[in-house]
Specification:
With about 230 residues, this protein is an alpha/beta fold. The chain folds into 2 domains: about 140 residues, HAD superfamily/HAD-like (Rossmann fold), CATH 3.40.50; about 60 residues, Putative phosphatase, domain 2 (DNA polymerase, domain 1, Orthogonal Bundle). Helices cover about 40% and strands about 10% of the residues. It has 10 helices and 6 strands. A 6-stranded parallel β-sheet has the order 3-2-1-4-5-6, with helices on both faces. The longest helix is centred in the N-terminal third of the chain and has 19 residues. Bound molecules: 6-O-phosphono-beta-D-glucopyranose and magnesium ion.
């Protein structure tokens, strides 16, 4: 029997490609406020909370807290306009099959997303009922790269961290999973997720049994240092 009992999935960029919608929403705000923001800049925002994303976007410029709040809200309104169109067709290739296979293998399934819109995204995708625990941007105050969210989700599923595998597309998410003492499967280029235990371009051609076999040959995950993030109260 495998020692692994649960899979924890990031949402944006792993289950569905909302990363593009986040980009367009930040770009609209940046253009309106005359801030320079490119697709390259956007890569640094992958996996970061809304507040940490705005801090990166500001590139060292400081603005009053009330402006921060107003800009985060405006970006969120632009982003949420895209969510109305989400349907099960927006699952990334292979994800529906992978989730079903994992459930059939008896694994518990958790979601660990920095997003405060995760519930609505899951609803649109039609997969809310597949998850035993959903951790979103409201679950903990310290967002990725801090490990708190993944540990919270594991706790809700009653599974210890070394029995969990996190699926992540963001460097901050891989760092968080390793700091939580969990296995991590990175989805995307080595340059971004190469620190994970295993890397795949996506879940499209990956059977659950391959992941379990590959990880069973590795030693138990060691806990990596914790890197803090800004508290994310709003
Ligand atoms: C993460 C995304 O899942 O959620 C980030 O990768 C995003 O780009 C973060 O900033 C927070 O999302 P939201 O929906 O709360 O603004
Ligand atoms: Mg992501």
């Amino acid at each position: 029997m495998s020692a692994i009992q649960a899979f924890i999935f990031d949402l944006d960029g792993v289950i569905t490609d909302t990363a593009e919608y986040h980009f367009r929403a930040w770009k609209q705000l940046a253009d309106e406020e005359n801030l320079l923001f490119t697709r390259e800049d956007n890569e640094q925002l992958r996996g970061l909370s809304r507040r940490d994303s705005l801090i990166v976007l500001l590139k060292g410029k400081t603005v009053p807290e009330e402006t921060m709040l107003a800009w985060m809200e405006r970006k969120n309104n632009y982003y949420r306009a895209f969510l109305h169109n989400l349907t099960p067709q927006d699952l990334l290739p292979g994800v529906g099959r992978f989730l079903q296979e994992a459930r059939s293998a008896g694994l518990r399934l958790g979601l660990g997303s920095a997003s405060k819109n995760a519930a609505e995204v899951l609803q649109g995708l039609g997969i809310r009922d597949l998850f035993d625990a959903v951790g979103d941007g409201y679950a903990v105050s310290k967002a990725k790269p801090a490990p708190d969210l993944f540990i919270w989700v594991a706790g809700r599923m009653d599974v210890l961290p070394p029995a969990c595998v996190v699926f992540e597309d963001a460097e901050a998410g891989v760092t968080a999973a390793l700091a939580a003492g969990m296995y991590c499967v990175g989805l995307g280029p080595q340059s971004r997720v190469g620190a994970a235990h295993l890397c795949h371009p996506s879940l499209e051609a990956v059977p659950v049994s391959n992941v379990l076999n590959a990880l069973s040959k590795l030693p138990p995950p060691a806990r990596h240092p914790v890197i803090d993030s800004a508290p994310n109260p709003s």
